[in-house]
Every structure is written in C-alpha cells, then in structure tokens.
Amino acid sequence: MPQVAVQINGKTYRMACDEGQEAHLLDLAQRFDKYINQLKGSFGEIGDQRLTVMAGVMVTDELVEMQHKIRGLESELAELRTGTTSSSDKDTNMALALNKTAERIEQISKKLNAI
User: Fold this and answer.
1) Which domain, by its residues, includes 78?
2) What is the tens place of the pLDDT at every residue in 6-35?
3) Residue 43 and residue 39: Cα distance in Å, rounded?
4) Element spanning 79, H or E
5) Are the beta carbons of 105 and 72 closer than 8 angstroms?
6) Which site from 4, 19, 40, 77 is most exposed, i.e. has the minimal number of CB atoms within 10 Å?
7) What are phi and psi of 13, to 5 degrees?
C-alpha cells in the first residue's frame, strides 16, 4: 500500500492510500490546508486542534449543502421522468431544469475554486 507525505498547517503527515490514489490524496490534503490557512488568516494562531476542528466543520457544512442540492436536483429529475407534466410542458420544464442545473454547477464550481 503506497504512502504519501502530505503537508497540512506546515506539518508533514505520512498517509497510506490505495494504489493509484496518491495524487488524489495530495489534492485533498492541499484543499484541506487551504481551509486551515483561511481560518488562520481570519482568526490568527488559535491552536492546531481548534483550527483542525473548525476546518472539518467548514468542509462538512459544504458537503451537507451540496448533498441537499443534489437531492433537490434528483427530485426535479424524478418529476421530469415520471411525466407529472403534460408533454408540451416537459420540454419547457426540461430546459428550465437544465438551465438551473448549469447555474448551480457554476455556483458550486466557483465556491470550490475560491477555496
């Protein structure tokens, strides 16, 4: 099992991962480190444990928000698939749903890129 050395908050941690997942693990660690640095910029040095917990809560909050959005999109898709609307309205609803989905994806992408 490969091991990767990741840097979070200026400290190096050795972590194991599945074969071929090394780059993904490094990317995840870099993203998490950005949360830590963002918090340090806002609150200063408040302790490693507190920074880690706060960053974990921030990541979890974003995850839950995205899960809610996904459920909403799945619900919209299910409505479109079950044919709860007339055939002439289906095309309009499909186009609206696709536009909403594209807008949501752009918002999520901007949010993720800002981190």
Assistant:
1) 3-114
2) 999 999 999 999 999 999 999 999 999 999
3) 6
4) helix 48-82
5) no
6) 19
7) -125, 135
Q: How far is CA 56 from CA 6, 31, 32, 102, in A?
A: 17, 11, 8, 28
The helix/strand/coil state of 17 is coil
Mapped onto helix, strand or coil, the DSSP state of residue 111 is helix
Q: Which residue has the tokens 């917990």?
A: 53
Q: What is the pLDDT of residues 32-64, one digit of tens each?
A: 999 999 999 999 889 999 999 999 999 999 999
Residues in the chain: 115
In total, how many domains does the chain have? Answer: 1
Give the C-alpha separation, 95 to 92, whole Å. 5
Q: How far apart are alpha carbons 62 and 51 in whole angstroms?
A: 17
Q: Is the pTM of this model over 0.90?
A: no
Q: At 76, which amino acid appears? A: E
53 neighbors 43 (Cβ within 8 angstroms) = no
